[in-house]
Amino acid sequence: MKPVWIIPASILLLTALACNTPTSPTAGPKPTSTLSPTSGENFTLLPTSTPLPSLTLIVDESLERQWASEAAAAAEDINPSQATGTPDTTGCVVQSTAWAALNAEPGSGDSWIQLHYRTAVLPTEINIVQSANPGGITGVQVEGSGGARVIYSGEQPTGGKCPETLTIPVEVDFAVDTILILVAASENPTYIDAVELVGRAASLTNIPVFWRIPVPGNTSPGLMDVDPLGDVYLAAGQGGVYIFDWEGNGLDNFPPGEGSLIADVKMDLYGNLLLADPTLNQVYVTSPGGERLGSFGRQGAGDGDFGPHSPLALEVSPYTNNFYILNENASGTQIQVFDGNDGRFIHFFSLEGGVFKDMDFSEDNLLYVVDQTNATILKIDPESGQVLDRLGAETLAHTTPRGITLDATGNIYVSVNSSDRGAAIYVLDRQGGLERLLGKLTNAADTEWPEGTFFDPGGIAVTSDGSFLFLCDGKEGRVYLTAYKLKD
Description:
Distance between the termini: 52 Å
Radius of gyration: 25 Å
Largest sheet: 8 strands, antiparallel
Low-confidence stretches: 1-44, 46-61
CATH architecture of the largest domain: 6 Propeller
Number of helices: 1
Number of domains: 2
CATH superfamily of the largest domain: TolB, C-terminal domain
Structural class: mainly beta
CATH topology of the largest domain: Neuraminidase
Number of strands: 33
Shape: elongated
């Protein structure tokens, strides 16, 4: 039996009239993992930039050495991925195991290759291994969380050596995960075999807590959402839903029904709220003021049914307003998709090989799901359910990720329950590289822990512009909501 969408017609009509109904944007082409240069096709080096003033990095003393994991180039006569990984060209030879701009017309200007690295570091040096015709590098630029900066320009003296490694010392005050190299067009082009980025990995970022407040009542920490005004909606278990503004002022509380426990709350495109109740196996829909508009779901194994401890988490497509429900039953874990207008079950797709805890949509309508078992983030096509990528395998190694949220530029914020670095929040770039760490973990649940320290952090939310970040932590009866101000 399919779930019934129980919404009185009169309420639906009033809700529709009261809402300024947005037009669902038309989905564009699906993005790919191919890197794009920062300034377009005719690439010029960017001027020196400075990092955001509030992002002061504390770095580990040990140096991290890494070779590029992805590459894009203006000329692809040779696949630019030949410049990724460790050096693999023997001797001074013209060979397709290295990249070069083969058909660029001499005198036509510079060609370019852009390389991406899995982990952002505060760089100390860059080593560019040239396996044939060295000396054609005319400019190098580093890019990362603080913008972009030119670190080398001019002609490279080689002293007649080949192969040749160009070592460039780097002094910038922001984390770097991308390198752009300009190469002169020539009849005998320079071949780049590999490029090493050396630097210190980011440690805890020195950003003070903006505010921390205790969540009242006999609550338990749940997942959350934030609306365009910066108001925070926190699922608080037996406490229902609490609403706070961006300054930490309490705005409202929607108590749950008898026997209910609210594990997640999300806002749809019309301002209505979805509440996940894994105790009664229901998803409730309420007005922005908390008035119950309807519900769907029941315990079972059929289409649209939920497992005995589900639904676990909710999300809403920013393109279609369809509802995505994380469900766990005897068959495994799946994401069930429901029509956001009438609650009709559409389809489901399965998630395999892990334990999945939270999810969020990006601005370009891709679904990101936390895989706690493998400490990675699945990047999923929400229509087909195809896993497009696994992000953060190196960045999140030795952590237990729990919650996830994305800002409008694609930065990924992950709360973790355990970490070999002792951090509570990992901030990743679009490719899954580490940008910064926030907060400290504690196991001292029997004592009062100070602000900036977190016990069993869970729900996490960020404003679309990345200005404010919110995190919920604690245990039943002692729950805190913390805010960081990331930008002035």
